[in-house]
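Quick one, tokens below:
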């Protein structure tokens, strides 16, 4: 447990906990809406924005690079909001997959000729948890707090669309606006998260804790609470494993999240067999 006293470990742990907290909540919406890969798509759009900035001679920590990444996620947010319900034959998830694959291909093409392209490409996938500046974590935490406030005041339309997507189209004719606001705030979160944790872990933070919560109960508040605790425990455990065995931080947390999900799922199954009326 000596790792707990290391400054870089403490910074990485705080970063992981901040990311896990808001992603567990957003993941609840995404899993319930059935658009599981929207996070990957928006994260890849953010990575594309950073790649464009690199080609233009900007560094990843340049504010203009961040604005480009944010702008690309807003483009994705508007596109997904517009496509929702436009095609009865093709599900939204198919379009999300197309956007993800195309954005990823574009990133490869843009960074192919860059001298540091391979390193930047690796960072977009696995992030830099152990080298992130504490000041960056503070700024991201403030941003996420602002997003949380917006979601608190708009919780009624957001949860209505999440829980009753078909009815909400009748009750709230401006579903496009509510969807865009949801995906835009989602894009704010993802843009900052990708630069810290990378595309893969951001996806893991979004989906796995939310799935863990929903596997245990269908009730919103208990599911969110379980997801938060699950994400926090897996983050610290993954970082400890990373330091102990000298492995990259983000992949270690992601594997820990998946491993814990398997154990959690088995425990839920046993619990329901022993006490089926308890959940």
């Amino acid at each position: 447990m000596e790792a707990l006293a290391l400054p870089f470990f403490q910074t990485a742990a705080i970063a992981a906990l901040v990311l896990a907290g808001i992603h567990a909540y957003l993941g609840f919406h995404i899993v319930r809406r059935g658009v599981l890969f929207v996070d990957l798509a928006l994260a890849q759009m953010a990575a594309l924005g950073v790649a464009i900035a690199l080609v233009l001679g900007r560094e990843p920590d340049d504010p203009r690079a961040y604005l480009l990444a944010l702008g690309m996620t807003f483009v994705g947010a508007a596109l997904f909001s517009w496509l929702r319900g436009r095609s009865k034959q093709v599900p939204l998830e198919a379009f999300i997959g197309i956007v993800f694959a195309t954005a990823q291909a574009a990133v490869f093409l843009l960074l192919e000729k860059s001298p540091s392209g391979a390193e930047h490409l690796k960072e977009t996938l696995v992030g830099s948890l152990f080298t992130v500046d504490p000041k960056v974590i503070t700024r991201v935490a403030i941003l996420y707090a602002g997003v949380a406030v917006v979601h608190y005041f708009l919780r009624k339309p957001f949860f209505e669309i999440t829980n009753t997507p078909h009815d909400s189209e009748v009750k709230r004719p401006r579903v496009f606006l509510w969807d865009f606001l949801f995906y835009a705030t989602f894009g704010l979160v993802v843009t900052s998260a990708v630069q810290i944790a990378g595309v893969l872990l951001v996806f893991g933070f979004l989906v796995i804790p939310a799935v863990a919560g929903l596997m245990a109960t269908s009730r919103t508040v208990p599911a969110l609470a379980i997801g938060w605790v699950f994400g926090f425990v897996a983050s610290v455990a993954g970082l400890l494993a990373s330091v102990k065995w000298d492995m990259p931080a983000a992949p270690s947390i992601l594997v820990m999240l998946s491993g814990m999900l398997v154990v959690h799922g088995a425990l839920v199954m046993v619990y329901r067999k022993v006490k089926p009326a308890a959940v």
